[in-house]
Write a structure and sequence with these properties.
Elements (H helix, E strand, L loop, with lengths): L1 E3 L9 E3 L22 H6 L3 H21 L7 E3 L11 H9 L6 E3 L18 E3 L19 E3 L21 E3 L11 H8 L5 E2 L2 E2 L21
Parallel strand pairs: 3-4, 4-5, 5-6, 6-7, 7-8
Antiparallel strand pairs: 1-2, 8-9
């Protein structure tokens, strides 16, 4: 028998009646995937044949799983909008980051990230960490080959630490909607620290950006009588 599922998210799916089961399609409200019986329970049920089938499937899927976890050969990776900074998964997330030794393009947008300073991405050329909670350049991972770095909508208040990227091939930097953007002579300060930079916040380097930051001189008047 065939029944339409009543729940809207599953209205285009169907439920086929399973033999020796009393559940009907019109009773199914929220399909769930549940963990199967343990090996001990199957043994006491005298259903070892099910266990053997399960082990065979596990063996055949082992190689596929290994390929899925082959982070060392990953060249491009998008893990955006996963809330990876949450305590529930941050440690596993950092474990994966440490294995990205060949990644060249990495997107980690909107993940509540605060500090990745212990991570090194030796081949990363493009890193997008927009909409996170970074407060300093010192909290970014080690990215010696970086060319394009996007940090929009974080909470970076000062340009302290930006000179660490002076000896990298960084060409494009986005700092839009960070507090440091409102710093006096912001563009001149960035380009003076990063002379190889070509584009800042989507705007190419302009002649006025090359002038050194203004130096304030303080004078003290002395009156001799």
């Amino acid at each position: 028998f065939f029944f339409q599922l009543p729940s809207d998210p599953f209205r285009y799916l169907g439920w086929w009646e399973v033999e020796e089961q009393s559940v009907r399609g019109n009773q199914l409200r929220c399909p769930r995937v549940r963990e199967g019986p343990s090996e001990e329970e199957l043994f006491f049920r005298k259903e070892e044949h099910t266990l053997r089938k399960r082990k065979q499937v596990t063996d055949t899927e082992k190689w596929e799983k290994r390929l899925q976890e082959n982070w060392e050969n990953c060249a491009e990776l998008n893990l955006s909008f996963q809330d990876l900074g949450d305590l529930y998964q941050v440690e596993n997330f950092k474990r994966i980051l440490r294995r990205l030794i060949r990644v060249e393009k990495l997107w980690l947008v909107d993940n509540s990230l605060t500090d990745l300073s212990a991570i090194r991405l030796p081949r990363c050329r493009e890193l997008n960490v927009n909409q996170n909670h970074f407060t300093s350049f010192k909290q970014l991972p080690k990215i010696p080959q970086i060319q394009h770095l996007s940090l929009a909508e974080n909470n970076i208040t000062t340009l302290s630490g930006i000179s660490d990227f002076r000896h990298t091939p960084l060409e494009s930097l986005i700092l839009k909607r960070n507090p440091c953007e409102f710093q006096e002579r912001y563009r001149q300060l960035v380009f003076s620290n990063l002379p190889n930079l070509k584009v800042l916040d989507g705007i190419p380097k302009l002649p006025e950006d090359c002038s050194p930051p203004a130096v304030r001189f303080f004078y003290r008047m002395c009156t001799i009588l």
